[in-house]
Design brief:
nine-stranded parallel beta sheet; 11 helices; homodimer
Chain lengths: 278, 278
């Protein structure tokens, strides 16, 4: 690694989804330490296996910081009891994010409740849900990062699908809420740059990297390693930083192909590609 | 069919993609006549098999009108020769649309040229391409309908992905260009209703129907029969008509599942579902 690349390298964060099929969280943390990756973003299933306190301790040992906790959200549900359960789960996630000192809690807000075609209603449930946990998040010092997901996930995962839509919600909710900008979800958006500028430094809470493959063979688990697809990653990375973002470059690759590769090699490739094309 | 439903039924159009694996165009036209479907939208592969003149004659015999010809577009390409070929092909499509008396020529504008990551450049090629054929379309009396495709097709099929983006292009191009609004492509868009209003009667040239299945198992050929998915079709149909649209309700279902069904049954189902949920 050329010394000129050190600042870039220091931004790299491993989202645990990238090697979720190969390693548990302890193995991931140790691998990051071995390979000189100084940031991580755990998913909660992995975190729950290891426990938040033990994870925090292990991260301190290895001087690894947490770029985000994935994920809260999933607010829309068919009845009030289920919506209350989601709110309780989000409070727990906020507490865990605080324990880890995470830069933010990423919110994948949820899609349509089962059997529903009421998209306007689902979006209102998202606003109501975030409102219900926002004071708790503010008290805990955990910024909430609404992650707009690609429109192909609108029905079943996330009914917030553009950066501007997320920012409209931020405007309604007030301080303590921003956005997680994932290139996979917004690269196609003709308004993305305007939206990144609109967000500004204070609301750009996370930046996620992978690539869009051509062809894409699966809606969920065919995301690409940076450089293997068609997203102009370096341009977008420079744009978001010109808009004031100073946080991590978090690599999150949901890919049945990469889940079948030796995870040490996955991390090596992540590091190389981050330097080469991001 | 209740007489109250007759106006709705008269709007129904069969996009030939819906039964493309089972029938040729002559069979489709005869089936529409049998089942009382008075409008059709041929794809050009089927049209080329039968020929535009013979098709026009057959349609007159059965008193079936053409809600649109699918499709022109595919403008971005790696070199000028390929872009010129696309323009020539679009002129041919305009001529065929005129021969058929089609309500419009639908444009699926194309994605990134092979090997390119320059989305801004691709979108400029689209504008340039439409500009190059627009006078020909105006002379022929064929409105050009830009069809924004779902963002999941941005890379490989269509880099125009929202109604507003298409309308921005219409604004730049002037008269003779409007949009084809397909529910599958825009149902998720938080701004779709504002955009339909912005389009208005003069630029709402086509309205396509199918449904979004949960889960969706394939990006291209897992579209749903109306009523089998989660799109609030009746609301959207009423909204677009409240915005001034008076044209066909064109059913276009790309579905490996429905392509394996007896096509006569597909048409029966299309008619029933159009009445029941659209």
């Amino acid at each position: 690694m050329a010394s000129a690349d050190a600042p870039l390298r220091s931004k790299l964060s491993l989202n645990t989804a990238t090697v979720r099929e190969q390693w548990n969280l302890e193995q991931m943390i140790e691998a990051c330490a071995r390979q000189g990756i100084s940031r991580i973003s755990p998913w909660r299933d992995k975190l729950d296996e290891l426990g938040a306190d033990k994870t925090a301790s292990l991260l301190r040992t290895h001087d690894i910081s947490v770029s985000g906790l994935c994920r809260g959200g999933m607010f829309p549900a068919v009845d009030q009891a289920a919506r209350d359960a989601a709110i309780a789960d989000n409070r727990k996630a906020i507490d865990d994010a605080a324990t880890l000192g995470a830069d933010c809690l990423v919110l994948v807000v949820g899609g349509l409740p089962s059997g529903s075609r009421d998209l306007v209603g689902a979006r209102q449930m998202v606003l109501d849900g975030i409102s219900a946990v926002l004071d708790h998040a503010r008290s805990a010092g955990v910024p909430l990062a609404i992650e707009p997901l690609h429109p192909m996930y609108c029905a079943d995962r996330c009914c917030v699908n553009t950066l501007d839509q997320a920012l409209d919600m931020c405007d309604q909710l007030g301080h303590g809420v921003g956005i997680a900008a994932d290139v996979y979800h917004f690269w196609w958006d003709p308004n993305y740059l305007t939206a990144l500028k609109r967000a500004g430094k204070s609301r750009l809470l996370a930046f996620h990297l992978c690539d869009w493959l051509v062809p894409t063979k699966d809606l969920l688990v065919d995301r690409g390693m940076m450089g293997d697809g068609i997203i102009d990653l370096r341009t977008i990375r420079q744009e978001i930083e010109a808009c004031g973002y100073t946080g991590a470059h978090e690599v999150e690759i949901l890919s049945s192909r990469w889940w079948a590769v030796d995870p040490e090699m996955v991390l090596t490739t992540v590091i190389e590609r981050h330097q080469a094309v991001c």
